[in-house]
Amino acid sequence: MHSRPPKKFSPIPFSYHQEIDLRIDSLTNLGAGVGRVDGWVVFVPYALPGELVRTRIFRNDKNHSQGDLVEVLEKSPDRVEPGCALFGTCGGCQYQHLSYEKQLAWKTRQIRELLKHMAGEEREVNPCASSEQIWNYRSKITPHFEKPVDGVIKEIGFLKVGRRQEILDVPNCPIAMREINDALPAVHADLRTNGRSYKRGATILLRATEGRVERDPKAIAREEIGGVKFDFVAGEFFQNNPFILEKFTGYVGEKALEGGAKYLVDAYCGAGLFGLCLASRFEKVMGVEVNEAGARWAANNVALNGFGNVSILQADAEEIFAKIDTPPEETAVVIDPPRKGCSPEFLAQLVAYGPQRIVYVSCDPATQVRDYKLLREAGYALAEVQPFDLFPHTRHVESVMTLVKSGTEHGVAGSAHPA
């Protein structure tokens, strides 16, 4: 076996490909096992808490090392057989070897630890809400292939673990919806037949919609959640686990209503997911979207469902709340920003508007906690944190924080952060 160290390899504290045994005591938020040797941290992907493992070191960084899992010497009772033969080689899933119950427990713990380490708050986080369906739940996948060689397309699939370019052939994906898996063989055959028409590598779209699979990213897809219909562009963002969306949006609505709010503002509204799902519970709903095309789709969806109490406002990023005319003390604001979280400008405008409560939905709990610290300084107390597992078997988790303006009559007693 080739074991010459890479040029920049630092041989301290372990030599290249040295094998060591260590006990794993936790997981990182990227899903790797964490163990220690004389206080020195070693990350081992696919190792589980409680396990004794043998790892082969391939990298020493300033304050930790990284190794590959060679063998599990003492197995965790939570270790299960992965549902996919490609698990461990394909970069798509991180947790198929961990029982589903424990996946939820670790995702809950991850958010609790972020609050503790980033915001200095020791507090309870509600147990992560499970997806109704934990296999065949993804409504969209985007496989890739490299530039064809002499018109021949080789692997079609996803990046291998730890590789920036090498693609693994994925003929079937157990977390993708059944319609997508049924369509995959024909899609692969079609791409390979037409290999000469591709001058370079490409990413392809498979979006399940209304019982069929859409491959054209510009086509219109439709999703229905609790009787509310949404049309959107197939290649654009829309939550990809339809099986949990009714529970997910229902919870957000419950929290927005809790303080007696009559009005709802759905900032970052996109196709209108939260605003429209919750429209029947509020006197008036305003969706705000900075993207012009996004605002048009949201307005189309308002018309499609015949909601008379919903308006969609297209706003400049500098003036998000300029057209909002409802009294802030009777208004709840739902925010669902992209992974990078909210900009300081957006948070400043939100605080200046001063709604009685903010329901902050996030696909990256670390940027959410960062933003929460700014909102806390501005007088918002954290009432409740509820994780949702939109992507079983992966490291991803959605986190919903309910923030209540201090001094709000309907604030939750005893929930203010520790001084």
Helical fraction equals 10-25%
- Straight-line N-to-C gap: 57 Å
Please, what is the oligomeric state?
Answer: single chain
Largest sheet: 7 strands, mixed
CATH fold title of the largest domain? Rossmann fold
Question: What general outline do the C-alpha atoms trace?
Answer: globular
**CATH homologous superfamily placement of the largest domain:** Vaccinia Virus protein VP39
Which second-level CATH architecture of the largest domain applies? Answer: 3-Layer(aba) Sandwich
Query: In angstroms, what is the radius of gyration?
Result: 24 Å
Give a structural overview.
- 22% of the residues lie in helices and 28% in strands.
- A 7-stranded mixed beta sheet has the order 17-16-15-18-19-21-20, sandwiched between helices.
- With 419 residues, the chain is α+β, with helices and mostly antiparallel strands.
- It has 3 domains: 19-74, OB fold (Dihydrolipoamide Acetyltransferase, E2P); 104-132 and 239-405, Vaccinia Virus protein VP39 (Rossmann fold), CATH 3.40.50.150; 140-221, no CATH class.
- The protein starts with 18 loop residues before the first strand and ends in a 14-residue tail after the last strand.
- Helix 1 (100-119) runs parallel beside helix 7.
- Residues 409-419 have low confidence and may be disordered.
- The protein contains 7 helices and 21 strands.
- The radius of gyration is 24 Å and the shape is globular.
